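Could you please consider the sequence and fold following this short note?
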Amino acid sequence: MNILVINCGSSSIKFQLFRMPEEKLIAQGKAEKDSRGETCFLFESGGKQKEKSWEGFTYQKNLDEILGELVHPENNCLGSLEDIDAVGHRLIHGGEEKTGCVEITKPLLEKMEASVSLAPLHYPPNIEGVKAINQLIPEVLQAGVFDTAFHHTLPPRAFLYGIPAEWYEKHRIRRYGFHGTSHKYASRKACDVAELNYSKSKVVSCHLGNGASVAAVKFGKSVDTSMGFTPVEGLLMGTRSGDIDAGLILNLQQNFNLSSGDIQQLINKEGGLLGLSGVSSDYRAVEKAAEQGNEKAQTALDVYHYRIKKYIGAYAAAMGGLDLVVFTGGVGENSAGARKAVCDEMEFLGVKLSAVFNKNAEGKEMVIHEKESKVKVAIVPANEELTIAREVTGLVK
């Protein structure tokens, strides 16, 4: 069975083609918009890479190129597009009812379109990707795995907000959490790497990228997570503000005449590392600026690391202990400086990072703690696509 997994972001499409249930990766790559608005395309298959670029960035064009490469004879991937048994999408917000892999039907797509305000950075590209596949290969089964699904095990004490109960009872206003597919994969895989029993371990999973969140995973189930009703809450991110006083939003609206659209722009696209540093939303660029003496950049990094550290401590308390901290996502996997800053002064919790392992661990799946560390620390490169492929396979069967 051939499962094509697509992850449509605001400026990129990542894809992987799996042969299931063998979990054999046949091809992978991405189409990404650069600073000039051009698309940079990478296709990998059979140990070979192909790169090309073109003007503009549209989901229809990019997915057409991806499908074209998958059936190109020289790539030896698929004989025809009919060989694709299903297309799996990473989708952002499933609410309470969407807790597993679901077929993407017309009513579901309409519901997604009506819910764009819940995740304005994510839902539009999700929808564009589904529509493009409908145009290009209309007969194929499309399925979605929601970012919120893994967190449906949160107890009421973790998901309820301190507002009148009828807002939850009537309108389901609550914490949903996101990055669930990543947290599910990373927490389980990290336990394998650290030789821990997943069903008996207390894990804090740190998904750190342009979007970032932390999850408390106790005995294999998510019991708390930093993102909330929308993906804005929690950690400082690339352009998202993270935790912010709700009263501040009211103050900005009342005293500075900001509209709801202005607020959306402020907390989703102008905040985070970009807003505090004035340099970039890219952690690497901010880190480089800090190394060159940019004080605002250093302050932005301090806030970024501090919030992660704060959540780890809170979740250790919430779970009644801590066995493992796992880092995943672009920053989590690749920045030794970020991991060191987060783990500094965490010895009281039992965390003792190995400076040598941490420095030499970029992008590798491995443990990076000292032998005597009571709490294990691991890196697990993100692999949301494999998790989605597994769940789509189950749905198809």
